Amino acid sequence: MTDTLYERVTARPADTPSPVALNLVLADTTLFGEDDSPGWVQGYGPVPAVVVRDLVSDAVTDEAAKATLRRLYRHPRSGQLVAMESKARIFPKGLRAFIGVRDQTCRTPYCNAPIRHHDHATPARDGGTTSGLNGLGGCEACNYAKEAPGWQVVTHDTDGHHTAVYRTPTGATYHSTAPPLPGPTRRHSAIEGRLSIDIVELKWTA
Ligand SMILES: [Zn+2]
Fold it and tell me: How many whole angstroms from 100 Cα to the centroid of ligand 1?
């Protein structure tokens, strides 16, 4: 019965394994055992450091598994995602992955549903750019609600904090700030912060 269910759901033969992609996000310091900040599994949530290290170790040592590494760059003060290494450099795909990892769940305040759409805050028809700044992760329901008359969403980035301001048809405004990535945040001078962002942006566009 399990085989039949598997074949009906996946449209693949039950005796052939299906590839499953698992995105693990963790600080390099956690990976190398310097600290025990929890990691995070995309689509699931926080996972203790010891478990993420085991998952990485299993994936690397299992002959049948294919483990890949992608570097993510955090803002030194806010801890938010500012850039991500992308081997495939295809702009929309890389950008969708970036927004998915940065936002983690639907960005509408109090929603927290899984991300189904990667949307423009200011629509492309109104001159909104296809960029990380103007991009937002949203669930299906919120994405359609946002299209209704009277809704307006504006994004801005202040000192590494990506914030979306939602204005509802009644005129009420709500703020949504992207969550930080795993790992401790440190205090840096403004010059150090600016310099690290410049270095990351250089890599991102190279
Ligand atoms: Zn939502």
Answer: 13
